[in-house]
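Reviewers asked in the last cycle whether our approach scales beyond single polypeptides. To address this, we selected a multi-component target totalling 411 residues and predicted its structure end to end. The input consisted of the following lines:
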Amino acid sequence: MQTKIPAGKLASEAGKEADRILRSCVHCGFCTATCPTYQLLGDELDGPRGRIYLIKEMLESGSASEKTREHLDRCLTCRSCESTCPSGVEYAHLLDIGRELCEAGTERPMVERIQRKAMTAILPNRTRFSLLLKGAGLFRPLLPQGLKALLPAVSRTKLDWPPRRHKRTVLMIEGCVQPVLDAGIDRAAAIVLDQAGISLQRTGIAQCCGALEHHLNASEAALERMRSNIDHWWADIEAGVEGIVSTASACALQLKEYGYLLRNDPAYAEKAKQISALAADISELVAGQDLPAANGGGEKIAFHASCTLQHGQKLSGVVETILEKSGFELVPVKGGHLCCGAAGTYTLLQPEIGEALRANKIESLEAGRPTRIATANIGCMKHIESASEIPVVHWIELLAELYEKPQTDRG
Ligand code: SF4
Ligand code: SF4
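The resulting structure, written as structure tokens, was:
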């Protein structure tokens, strides 16, 4: 694609990067066919190719419009388009630049500004999020529908992890909302990895990996959060942890993006690169281990591959193989490449699209009559759970259950 970005804009890092990405797009439109918002809304401007054009236009004209902002807001950042694109267009990185320009060049209505500020202040901080949920009775009438749906599912149990007894140690990023909503997921990972001779070490800080602020276009806050995390984790990294793992695929993807996002920060670029090189999704870590045999007894599971797992981290099929090897039967799921509508804070900001996508996803997941639905990310889990009759779990919990059974029960 040819571009005519003015020289002044091209001199900036963002301008150069946008130009590089735009020029890699050949305008073929293959991506449009696999875009969930295009499928739902049928408007070219609500598909990747249309959004790419809007960003190009904005860069060339130097002015942002509310219309462009709306179309970019409706993008789930699911990266399904990146999986389809034959030219390797880095759509998500271009979208970040486009969103930042829109944020700077337009003014959102007051309600949206307050909503986004409140989310940025509360969600990335585990203590504040936990307090919010505890005060849910008072706040409930004021909350958006999507957040209300999350409230009943607060995790109240304090769970013991296996003792740290192995030489091999991996740093576990617990993040912000997941331990509040479901403390059992990271514990399940600790149980499974203990079987593989790996101990998990917690970071000791209760904050976001930066993904939530990133999703809310608060890019400076996201970068600050990432720098603060690096400072907190650095002693453990220097002490020689063999990796950094997350059970939330969205957080694992964000860790893998640290190197890219902080590449222009002289003080943090090298460290961020190292974080990204050490980062792993729990599925990658488990897949590479020699685990004792486990037998899921042929239980029928519908697996929902989160977008950050399959499109962001390109880990399609990894969890499915682990589950099948562990004796679970996976039922077919139509449209497995499509987003469930959770997409970080998307479901709170675009509830109608989020709910429509969820309805389609649940229909596909339930079609094979599974006993349980499994996924790889807390956001998808809570979003699907809030409208499904079938129990929803994180896939690592299925595995941990097998290892928690008495030895004689195992296959
Ligand atoms: S990221 Fe997802 S919603 Fe956004 S344009 Fe790409 S496929 Fe469509
Ligand atoms: S598939 Fe790739 S190259 Fe084709 S229009 Fe979409 S982003 Fe551009």
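Residues 7-105 form a domain with the Fumarate Reductase Iron-sulfur Protein; Chain B, domain 2 fold (CATH 1.10.1060.10). We regard this as preliminary and will revisit it once experimental data from Aim 1 are available.
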